[in-house]
TrEMBL record:
It is an enzyme of class 1 (oxidoreductase). Gene3D superfamilies: N-(1-d-carboxylethyl)-l-norvaline Dehydrogenase, domain 2, NAD(P)-binding Rossmann-like Domain. It comes from the Bacteria. GO terms for biological process: L-valine catabolic process. Residues 156-280 form the 3-hydroxyisobutyrate dehydrogenase-like NAD-binding domain. Pathway: Amino-acid degradation; L-valine degradation. It comes from Pikeienuella piscinae. This is 3-hydroxyisobutyrate dehydrogenase. Belongs to the HIBADH-related family. GO terms for molecular function: 3-hydroxyisobutyrate dehydrogenase activity; NAD binding; NADP binding. Its EC number is 1.1.1.31.
Amino acid sequence: MKIGFIGLGNMGAPMAANLAKAGHEVTGFDLAPYDVDGVAKAGSAAAAAAGREAVLTMLPNGEILASVMAEIAPAAMKGAVLIDCSTVDVAAARAAHETAAAAGLLSVDAPVSGGVGGASGGTLTFMCGGSDEAFAAAQPLFEIMGQKTVHCGGAGAGQSAKICNNMILGATMIVTCEAFALADKLGLSRQAMFDVVSTSSGYSWSMNAYCPAPGIGPQSPSDNDYKPGFAASLMLKDLNLSQQAAEAAGAATPIGAHAARLYAAMVEEGGGGKDFSAMLPRLETMKRD
Ligand code: NAD
């Protein structure tokens, strides 16, 4: 298949590399310099999209997605499928579907879970919104880049699922970090904390797969001085998206709202470029009110 891939950052680069490795002809574009194994370089987003049967985007936010969509929709081949894997607000996802439909293109909002490790290992989870036809056209590519794909419903349904998932992730990471900070003060070893919680009812992805305490559990950003991984600024973005959606839907999300405030404070203090698990060193220096 001829594939265009726009946005070759922490996530996009390994995803594009996996598509190329699987034998697809992948052409990429990013505003920043990049070098991805097996991926040819185009001079613009429109050039990366023109003549491709599928065009993937993996971009920072909804505003950027809208500007890239405006460039690629007129350039793309009729009947091509546009697959946006970025995490954006539900309204931006629906707007991207409308832009695609107006240009005679199929489209899927397909945000992912699994982080950079999942992107490199081809083990992402894709949560998708769009028509059955668009989903069917995109599915063979999801199978290369991921291990689980859920068709959640129509336009925007993938993003709805993503922001709910990430609200849980943000909140569980904070409380996992709180538990480590408390355990430290109680004189419990971090290894004992991990061994107990990872096999007890407090277990979670944040503890078991992405432990925020360095030196224990599987390799994670905490072992690399909290270099992301998944930056705190992106977690704040997702928590704000969940709060925006909760506000619009009239849903009560008190813990999600508090998690958003804690990540906002971390970002304001200059920690936005650190991995979101760096909430642990931040909590260790915080005073109890
Ligand atoms: P990133 O900042 O590393 O990558 C984004 C890339 O988009 C950058 O390389 C940037 O140069 C490029 N870009 C920006 N504007 C562009 C434009 N107009 N045209 C072409 N390229 C442009 O971010 P990331 O960590 O790869 O995340 C990408 C998306 O995936 C975000 O929406 C994020 O929320 C989501 N996500 C990230 C993770 C993670 O663990 N990093 C996990 C799940 C979802």
